[in-house]
Structures are given as structure tokens and as C-alpha cells.
Amino acid sequence: MQELMVTAPGKLAWIDSPSPHLASPDGAIVRPIASASCDLDRRLIAGATPFKPPFAIGHECVAEVLQTGENVRSVQPGDLICVPWKIACGQCAQCARGLSTACTAVQKYAAYGVPAGGHWGGLFSEEVYVPYADAMLVPLPVGTNPLAVASASDNLTDAWVAASTPIKRHTDARVLVVGGTESLGVLAVQMARAAGASQVDYLDTDDYRRAMAELCGANVEIGAHSTLDERYDVVVAATRDEQALNRGLLGLAPGGHCSCIGIMFEPPRIPLFGMYMRNVTMSVGACNVRPHIPKVLDLVNSKQCDPMLVCPQIVDCDDALQALIQPTAKCIMVRERITTSPQT
Ligand SMILES: [Zn+2]
Ligand SMILES: [Zn+2]
Q1: 42 C-alpha to center of ligand 2: Å?
Q2: Which of these, 34, 106, 39, 101, lies nearest to 338 by C-alpha position?
Q3: How far is ligand 1, taken at its centre, from the CA of residue 25, in Å?
Q4: Are 7 and 148 in a shared domain?
Q5: What is the CATH number of the domain that holds 216?
Q6: Which UniProt keyword terms apply here (predicted)?
Q7: Considering the chain, what is the average pLDDT of its residues?
Q8: 18 CA → ligand 2 middle, Å
Q9: What stretches in the chain show pLDDT beneath 50?
Q10: Does 148 lie in the same domain as 12?
Q11: Are residues 257 and 138 part of one domain?
């Protein structure tokens, strides 16, 4: 089978590799059919993270189940399923707490698409091993467009959790989304609206993303340098820019919350005293996506969000190399002609 590998900083290639084998009765072999780039992927490919090549890239996809172990009950060959980015057993004490990102049944940080906690392959590859099929895989409801939910593995669900969790704690929440990565900010605008925010403002220096955020119903007319004046109950910071994060944090009203989902590898300076005086909170961390994926599929299927808006490029396996390296928008690679999830 072919794996899409980062072979050196800035270099991608399809490499022939042995097919994975079904190593456990709880596992499954799946074939990704619609794989999305995560907002982190370009930095991973460029070598701008602590994860150094070579490694197989990709941790967002919808796949077809090819083979299942004898203990697997929830999926069968032929099913279309979402594959979460994180490898997790679903049964250890951390998984039981909802912290699948800290699953103790596998090596620390075990995930697809990064050389961490072992090598689990990447979700652009032709075939992938899933060690805990019942705990991880989420079947697509009938009629689901696989392309639209290819990102439910990570970015789409991350945006939902980051926006909806603090919005639920406020009545008529006023929300600021600070954009800065390819898709997360615009997805967070959509998700904030789906979660019932009364007002969503969007802050970004990028005109293309500002236009997309406006299409999604956000107010994008925020002065580049004006003080945000404690206006917001919830801030979703999908940025890697320290100054933008600081503007967002100081834009929080007393008692507000900032979900920080842009990954910063260097520690930023943050305005702790200003935050202290406002009694605000900030959360940061990789998203424990699995329990939230069914809700996200429902949001897409009921047209409460439109992830295709942030995925303007649909490419095949050959064109994926260029699309993943070019600094444009999020892209989806399709392995074959795709229809919606069939009636079973
Ligand atoms: Zn990701
Ligand atoms: Zn676990």
C-alpha cells in the first residue's frame, strides 16, 4: 500500500509500505476515502514543530472499514466511519474521564499523522490500522456527505467543543473568534452560531478568512488596533500570534472564558494580571474528539454548519502533494469517486 510520508522538512512523497495487519481482535483495518488537511499539517510538513520527519502525515479522514477483529461489534466491512485523530482504548481510567488524549493503554501521545507514541501511520495513507475499533470509530449516518465530515476527526470537532462548551455557561453569549490558522477560526464562527451565541465578532488580518467569516454571519468590522474593552463572554483563540491572543484575552468580560486552540510551540507572554482582574479563565489542550463526533455529524447533516466552505480544494492522490505544501486553504484528498453514505 502507499503511505503519504513527510520524508524531510518541506518534502512529501508517496512511499510503498507493507499493508497493516489486524493485530488485535478489537481492531480494524480501514481505507481512508476522504482525508482532510489539519491546520497543523503544513507546519508539520515544513518541520516547524517538535515532530521531525520521516513520518506518515494525516489525522483527519472518513474511511471505509475493510476488515474487523472478532470482538468488534459496532462496525463491519463496508461501513463508512470517522476516524478520530487520537489512538485511545475507551476503557482506561483516563478514557473513562473523557481524556482520550491521555489514554494509558497506549504510549503517551499516540496519534495518527505524527511521530509520537509509536508509529500509527497517517490518514492520507491507503490503509490504516485502528487498534480499538468500537471505542474509536464513528459510523456515518445514512445520507452523510463524507467530504463534509472528513474533518470531524479533529478541526471540525475541536471548533465545536471550543465554542460550545463556554457558550453553554452564558446566556446570550457575546463571542469573539480570533482567527489565524486555515480553517479553525471560520469553523469556530459557524459553531458559535450553532451553539446559540447572540453575537459573533471575528478578528483576523487575513482578508480571505475575514470574507469567509462574514459569509458565516460574523461581524468582521473590528478595528485593527482598537481596544476590545471587555466586550466578550467567550473568546475562541484559533491563532498562533501572541499579540492577537492577548487582544482576545483582554477583550474578555469579567467571568469570561477563552478557549485557546491555536497551537503555540513557544510559550507566549500572556496578560495574567489583566486576566486576574477580570476573573477570567482560559483552557488549552488537544481536543478529546470522540464523544463529540456524533453531535458534529448531526450539525453538518442538519446544515447548522458548512465545513465545505473552508475546504475549497478537492484533490486526488497526485495533486495532494502540492495542495498540502502550498500555503493556501485547507484541502480534502479523495481516493475515489465519492457518494453520500449509502442506505444499509
Ligand atoms: Zn490536527
Ligand atoms: Zn484509554
Answers
A1: 29
A2: 34
A3: 28
A4: yes
A5: 3.40.50.720
A6: Metal-binding, Zinc
A7: 94
A8: 27
A9: 343-344
A10: yes
A11: no
